[in-house]
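The freezer alarm interrupted the setup, so I double-checked each line after restarting. Inputs confirmed:
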Amino acid sequence: MLEIEHITFSYGRHRVLDDVTFDVAPGEIVAITGANGAGKTTLMRLLACLLMQDEGTVRLDTVNPIERPIRFRRGIGYLSEHCPLYSDMTVEAYLTYRVRLKGERSMRVRRRVSEVMELCGLENMGKTRIRLLSLGYRKRVGLADALALHPKLLLLDDPLAGLDVRQRKKTAALLTAASARAAVLVTGHEIQEMLGWCTRCVVLKQGRVAGLYRVSDYARDELAQMIERQVVSAEAVGEVAT
Amino acid sequence: MTAIQVIWLREVRAFRGAFSCGVPVAAFLAASGWTFVMMLRRNEGSVLQIQSIWGLSIAPWLPVLSAVLTMRLFSEERSTGMIDLLMAAPLRERDIVVGKFLSAMTVLGVVIAVSLVVPVLILPALSAPVQGTVRAPAFAATFLILFLQASAWCSAGTMISVLFRNQAAAAVSSLLLCSGMPAVVYAAILAWIPSVRAEVAWMPLLVHVYDFSTGLFSTAVLVLYVAVSLFFLFGCSKLLVCLRLRG
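Predicted 3D structure, all chains:
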């Protein structure tokens, strides 16, 4: 479904992604982890068409974002790291706006919005102003936005950050449910937790793929320790470099 | 609903409740009203017609209002991060730009229309024997040129707002561009190439307002404003593409 081949990206002279290659099949949840500055967010932004790679290709069901950007973007749902929302709008108004913006037909908009609000546990929050929501609910609204039009690929940048244990469990359940319809690519630092529900794990180290693990091939604790060691060594390298 | 309509509607609603819209609009109406009264008193007994006075009292304040209204269009999206969600949506850059531009133009159109209340409704009611009937075509022509000028300022302001995350910086920059640039370009042309003085005599912007208000239409002037607006809107959409290229 999603093919990422030899992606390279630099901010000026600073190379952030270097020859990144992997793919994601339908129904998979792939976790991307790594030390701060490893290139996780840059990779997500690149896949969300917010950046353009210097080299390499990305394809979603053979659609190249450079050749057919609108079609590519129609196939993705994106949750940004900071989960920005229009705080002056109510939850329902915001989701209606986003669904319309993504080109859903007028007659289906209301149905889509109520479906996705139910899915994300926002049924009772429809009339609440976004500025009054807690971080957990804001993330749910962002997730609802990303899920609204049943995208083929869900890109979730650090969706667990700042959430309490209960909210994390709910988010994990939501992602597992979403993976029935879409491939999910999720970044984060909560390795132990993510290994509980993801199918593969990609470790980024200074912009390169340092490890690519199929979760079912390892014992969870053993894999978590292995990944943590890789991340810690990357952090140490980063500290020496700075 | 098309993407342009969706963005337009959202922005118009955002304008309706925004402090950065209500206060500048009120200040604009107060300033232009004061200018109108002053010009009316100064030109008592002159041949200057009421629609010309109205147009000339509105035009100088339009760049200021346009700069303030357009400052938040993209800079607010950039500072809150909402620009990411807009750019990740299946939209063309030009749809985003046009939707936002049209929302600012809607507000400006309504404000210019509201400012018509005094010369069209109140003044004739107070001094009917002197003023006679209001000539709608003359006011329509004046409205047209003011709207075109507003469109040029607005498009410039929209483009400038893409460049900044800070709204105040965007407003000041577009104010400099809108108010300063035409004057500087005109003065520079006259200073360096005095021989073209006759050819560029039509350039001062208030002359356009006066000409249109007296029925002196010029296709060149119409084309000038439309071209300037399209130029800035095109530039704005290309700046968004650059934003996508380099983040």
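Quick read of the result. Chain B has twelve helices and no strands.
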